[in-house]
Design goal:
The complex is a heterodimer of chains A (293) and B (314).
Chain A: H1 3-18, H2 22-32, H3 34-56, H4 87-122, H5 124-139, H6 142-153, H7 157-184, H8 187-194, H9 199-235, H10 247-256, H11 266-290
Chain B: H1 2-29, H2 34-38, H3 45-54, H4 61-73, E1 79-80, E2 85-86, H5 87-120, H6 126-141, H7 144-158, H8 174-208, H9 211-219, H10 223-260, H11 266-275, H12 279-307
Antiparallel strand pairs in B: 1-2
């Protein structure tokens, strides 16, 4: 062993103390897997398109022309719809709607669900109550519950967000509860309690950070579901209402007019598949790298 | 078994009761007065009041609820005010179509799922492995209705091989009935089949490491026989459970699939009920879906215990 090796070995622990925390490094590793890289790249392009939509397609999503049901061409890459509106533009604006939905509903669902689950782990009585509550949500076949929400709130953007939020609660809640219960039984938590660390500090400094990883991974998995709940409701005509485009309502229109213009549903479907597959690839690689203990 | 059922009873009953409360609350939570929605044009307040008392809307809520549940238990599902027909008749009339679809989809799901599961758990050439893996990954990531749309485009629009909208009873006309049934059933089955396949594959990989496989190898049993007789056989039990768990998903999937393929089943009945605000019909359908999903889940737990002597219900 050369002296430089020994130096390195001696220096390593000190260096590691200031390096990225191991948990964050695992996220980095997830993004660097082949799957993770492809997924991140596709997602970044989609997000950039959605963000820049008003800049790239300054006219907005409702520019009509006499050129209806035109097939794909250089001017209209995805063709045009029944009112002569460019389908690429509408797909990108639809993507914008879907991403907005996901960004609203998934974090809200995640935070409420996790809080319910965590409080369930802290107060056992409340926990049993919450378990029953989650059982009920799971007892409903998913789209039936979404239909109930639509009946009460009407078919619009808000009801889609609410439906996604409610459907996500049991997943986050159960994960948070089981994670917290598992941590509570660990030696370090018992040690901390013996040392007289306050319950609150144990919860915020020890239990929450150690249950966070599976929840974040689950958020990525649930984002895929959120996209599909939207497009499913949209396909039934019970989601976001026209003229605002969403991927689901574009599919709905596309299938209705597929005999007039065979390529109508292809564009929106392509965007939807790209979004869903990249999200699910990302959640897979996060699951592999981050969730493995 | 009996003890298991008794222990499960409170939670099953609890979920059912709460589901019935939610179903009952829906029309009351939705905007607008159901009685006003029914009468056409301008109606005098007296007419509306008469209608309200006819529908029992002037009673206190808990009385309305008990009355509704009581009549449900007596087999009186009520009358749809929109379609002007008894809800029971409507459901019975649409049931065949949904039953046909879910039975066909379940059979396809089991067959395709086990085929790909056993294939994935066997030794494969790299190309075959890549095919099986990407097949599963794709169908795990995609919901039934998207598969349906793709099937419609490929087999109904771009090549006109199979009919994509409408239906025909398989029992009355097997030839055409099956043609109409094939695509929607496939669409409903393939995502579930991927779940089954993954589970069978994983459990085959674990079983391959067991001692009895080593013993069989040392006895000189051929690799093919080991895969089929020893490993696959012990791995199919897990698939049985998923089938039960997937029935709820199948029902939810049927909701959209029926709409996409223009089939007149319970799913499209429910969607139309939402669109036309036919609450009395919708309430019963929601409750029915929940009860079926719960029973299917229970049945799958019992099936698993029956298949695996190591698991005891109690």
């Amino acid at each position: 062993m050369s002296t430089s090796d020994i130096d390195a070995a001696v220096a390593a622990p000190a260096r590691r103390r200031f390096a990225v925390p191991a948990s964050l490094a695992r996220y980095g590793a997830a993004f660097r897997t082949p799957r993770g890289m492809v997924a991140t790249a596709v997602l970044l392009v989609l997000v950039a398109l959605a963000l820049l939509a008003p800049v790239i397609f300054a006219g907005g999503y409702d520019v009509q022309s006499s050129d209806s049901f035109a097939g794909p061409s250089g001017a209209h890459l995805f063709g045009t719809d029944e009112l002569g509106r460019d389908l690429l533009v509408r797909s990108v604006y639809g993507l914008r709607t879907d991403l907005l939905l996901v960004l609203l509903a998934v974090p809200v669902s995640g935070i409420i669900g996790s809080l319910l689950g965590l409080s369930g782990a802290v107060w056992p009585r409340f926990g049993t109550l919450m378990q029953r509550f989650f059982d009920i949500i799971i007892g409903f076949p998913s789209f039936i519950l979404a239909l109930c929400v639509v009946v009460v709130l009407g078919a619009n953007f808000t009801s889609t967000v609410v439906a996604i939020t409610i459907l996500g609660l049991p997943g986050f809640g159960r994960l948070a509860r089981s994670g917290a219960l598992e941590q509570q039984g660990r030696e370090y938590v018992i040690a901390a309690r013996t040392l007289g660390v306050s319950r609150r500090r144990i919860l915020t400094r020890h239990i929450v950070p150690n249950t966070a990883d599976p929840l974040i991974v689950h958020a990525a998995i649930f984002a895929v579901n959120a996209v599909f709940i939207e497009s499913g409701l949209g396909l039934l005509g019970l989601g976001v209402q026209p003229p605002q485009p969403s991927l689901g309502s574009l599919l709905n229109n596309g299938m209705r007019h597929v005999r007039e213009m065979g390529f109508y549903p292809i564009g929106p479907m392509l965007v939807l598949l790209l979004l869903a597959l990249s999200l699910s690839m990302l959640s897979d690689s996060l699951n592999e790298r981050v969730n493995r203990r | 078994m009996l003890r298991f059922l008794i222990r499960k009873l409170p939670s099953v009953l609890g979920v059912t009761v709460v589901a019935s409360m939610i179903a009952f609350a829906l029309p009351r939570l939705a905007p607008g007065d159901p009685a006003v929605a029914l009468v056409e044009g301008d109606a005098s307040p007296e007419t509306i009041a008469a209608l309200r008392s006819e529908m029992g809307l002037d009673l206190p809520l808990w009385q309305q609820y008990l009355k509704w549940v009581g009549s449900l238990l007596h087999g009186d599902l009520g009358t749809s005010y929109i379609l002007n027909r008894p809800v029971g008749d409507l459901i019975l009339g649409r049931m065949d179509s949904t039953l046909e679809l879910t039975i066909a989809a379940t059979l396809l799901m089991v067959a395709v799922g086990m085929f790909f599961g056993v294939l994935g758990g066997s030794r494969l050439t790299p190309w075959a492995r890549a095919f099986v893996d990407s097949w599963n990954t794709f169908f795990l990531a995609v919901p039934a209705y998207l598969v349906g749309l793709i099937l419609i485009l490929v087999f109904g629009i771009y090549t006109r091989v199979l009919p994509v909208s409408g239906e025909m009873s398989v029992l009355q006309n097997p030839n055409f009935g099956l043609q109409y049934l094939l695509l929607p059933a496939l669409a409903l089955a393939l995502p579930g089949a991927a779940v089954v396949a993954r589970l069978v594959q994983t459990s085959m990989l674990t079983n391959r490491g067991e001692d009895y496989v080593d013993l069989a190898i040392s006895k000189g049993v051929s690799p093919r026989r080991i895969t089929v007789r020893h490993v696959a056989r012990n791995s199919l039990g897990t698939a049985a459970v998923v089938i039960g768990l997937r029935i709820g998903d199948l029902l939810a999937g049927a909701l959209i699939i029926e709409q996409v393929f223009a089939r007149n089943g319970l799913g499209s009945l429910a969607v139309n009920a939402v669109q036309s605000r036919d609450y009395l019909l919708l309430q019963v359908l929601i409750l029915l879906a929940v009860v079926i999903a719960i029973l299917a889940q229970l049945a799958s737990e019992i099936a698993l215990a029956a298949l695996d002597p190591r698991i005891r219900l109690g």
